[in-house]
Amino acid sequence: MRNHHYALGAALLITLAMPWTLAAAADLNAPINMQAVQLQPQEQNGVRYVQGGIGQDEANALRKTPGYDLHVELSTGPGGEFESGANVDIYNAQGKPVLSVPDAGPLLYVQLPPGQYKVTGNAQGETRQQMVTVNGKTPATVNLNWR
């Protein structure tokens, strides 16, 4: 009986530590193999954006890319594993569409003027949304997770 409690406690500790472990695995100081990076800045309706993050090299390269005020991270499951292939739409405070990116992710960085925005993502037949304020000083981050 006592061993069962230890095993249960160990499993709980591992479960709680998992998100921190995944976050720590993203070593931004690790060398980047630029041959594995295929980031292509794009523009839609005057809004610049870049997306990607498939593989550790590309994710680290994107995280080091300056000049984007909104960072959208798409993930799935309780561990927050990267999710790509979502349709992401961004709306301004008046509800007007600002950007629509099909098959996005797992990271989407957008250059937006300061203001309030609603970010919606559709994946796996489910929609996630989050309100965000872009202040023009530090990048705002939106995490859309499908569990």
Produce the secondary structure layout:
Layout: H1 2-25, E1 42-44, E2 47-52, H2 56-63, E3 70-76, E4 81-82, E5 86-92, E6 97-104, E7 107-111, E8 115-123, E9 126-134, E10 140-146
Parallel strand pairs: 3-10
Antiparallel strand pairs: 1-2, 2-7, 3-4, 3-7, 5-6, 5-8, 8-9
Summarize the structure.
By secondary structure, the chain is an alpha+beta fold.
Descriptive notes:
- With 147 residues, this protein is α+β, with helices and mostly antiparallel strands.
- It has one domain: Immunoglobulins (Immunoglobulin-like).
- 22% of the residues lie in helices and 43% in strands.
- It has helices at 2-25, 56-63, and strands at 42-44, 47-52, 70-76, 81-82, 86-92, 97-104, 107-111, 115-123, 126-134, 140-146.
- The strands form 2 sheets. Strands 1, 2, 3, 4, 7 and 10 form a 6-stranded mixed beta sheet that branches. A 4-stranded antiparallel beta sheet has the order 6-5-8-9, with no helix packed on it.
- A hairpin with a 2-residue loop joins β8 and β9.
- It is globular and about 30 Å long.
- It starts with a helix and ends with a strand.
